[in-house]
Amino acid sequence: MEKTYRWGQPSLTARARATTNDLGEYRMFSLGPAEYYIVVEVGPSYGAASNRRESDPPLVSYYPGVGKISAATPVILGVDEERDAVDFTFTRIPVYTVSGTVVRPPGVQVDASNSIRSNGLQSFHVLPRGEGTDPIDTPFFQMPNLAPQTDPQGSEVPFEIHGIPAGEYDLFPVCCRGSGLSGRASVVVTAANVRDLRILMKPNRDIRGRIRVEGDGDATFRLDQVQVVLRPLRSTSLGDSFSGRPDPGTREFTINGVPEGRFEVAVEGIPYDAYVSALQAGPTDLLRNDGFDIGDSFDGVIDVTIAAKGSSIRGKVQRGILERGVGVAISLVPEQSRRGNASLYKRIDTNPTGEFLFRGIAPGNYKLFAWPASPPDSAEQNASFLKPYEDRGYSISVAGADIEGVVLPLIGK
Predict the structure, then answer these.
(1) Is the same domain home to 250 and 281?
(2) How far apart are CA 242 and CA 240, in angstroms?
């Protein structure tokens, strides 16, 4: 599994698979240079767990034999590099059962005929949480055992989830297709089964907002190209984003069907020279906060202000020998206090002569990074990724005027 990033949040992407032979040996090949986590899946019949069922999903272990990715040792491969003796030690892991009831509000109908489970309940998204949990610790899906349902529209659905190791989790029912409901429950699994858990499903929210435009572009600004996007952070189970486009006349927008959780706001489709000058979600200033919570207590609107003309930074990368036709990735990263604001990050590639141009930059302090190899998408938005390179960034202050003649050293040179 290669370590990648989505919206600055680490995740894993499968790049190769292998099956062990009768000696437990494996080989994976055709891997490019990257940071990898080696994952082994062991089914119930192997006996890796002390109390598992044949119907349970496989247990997962990460090299060199730990249960969490945050405790695993990554394997970093260079160009054309081979690595031997990447061996696992798999220990017996006790697992437990979580059982309870998913409760829908009275009167809500679900299309159970389109679901693979009764009453619209399909599976559970299980998200590790609590002290010591790293953002890369992988969520997983568990298929519940369901009691037979005589009433397909019954408001309460009993469930059992087997094969859960000890730890702290958020449970998200994946259910009620077409009903616009979502729910969450926190659970601590220690050395015993967890029973009588009740998960109340709630209607998803429609989030309203409005856009304002500052500057000379107000009369000609193409609002039909703009999209306001809610990106889920780790506290929500859903990996998809939610978006809405403003009405060109009223400049108001609605983002429909948003579940409870924590989100960041991105504004897409604005002109190259423009920038987001103010971003407010209720009382929260999102230019200086890493997201906001949508739940019962959120009844505000999202206010977006776009400035039509930002600053520009023009420069070049300093190299000993610059290979023509090969661009260098340049990242513009805001100062620490504003790194929760995704709209302030930018990345471009240099032209074949090493020149670059950033446009639409908001006033403030930044660092520029010239990467010898292009990092994974949005990796510079992740604090852990950026930390080893922090001192090698080129500091620059933007005060409203365009900046010319910046000469960047290539990181590592």
Answers:
(1) yes
(2) 7
Residue whose structure tokens are 């979502």: 182
Task: For residues 413 and 411, give the distance between their C-alpha atoms in angstroms, rounded to a whole number.
Answer: 6
Q: Is 290 helix (H, G, I), strand (E, B) or coil?
A: coil
Residue 230 CB partners (closer than 8 Å, separation 6+) = 207, 241, 242, 243, 255, 258, 263, 264, 265, 294
Last residue of a domain, one of 77, 110, 129: 77
| Residue 113 and residue 213 in one domain | no
Same domain, 217 and 144: no
Tally the domains of the chain.
4
- Kindly state whether residue 82 falls inside one of the protein's structural domains: no
pTM over cut 0.90: no
CA 99, 104, 106, 111 dihedral sign is negative
* Residue of 118, 241, 129 lying closest to 173 (CA atoms): 118
Sequential pLDDT tens for the chain (413 residues): 777 777 777 777 788 888 888 888 889 988 888 888 888 877 654 444 445 554 555 567 788 888 777 788 888 888 788 888 888 877 667 788 899 988 877 766 555 444 434 455 667 778 877 655 555 555 555 555 555 554 555 578 888 888 788 888 888 887 655 567 888 888 999 989 999 999 988 888 899 999 999 876 555 567 888 999 998 876 455 557 899 999 988 999 999 988 888 888 999 999 889 999 999 998 888 887 778 888 777 878 999 999 988 999 999 987 665 454 357 899 999 998 888 788 889 999 998 888 999 999 999 999 999 988 788 888 898 888 889 999 999 999 999 899 999 999 888 75
CA distances from 373 to 82, 264, 277, 326 (A): 20, 28, 31, 11
User: DSSP code of 279?
Assistant: E
- Quick check: is 44 in a domain? yes
Same domain, 160 and 209: no
| Assigned token pair, 176 | 């009620």
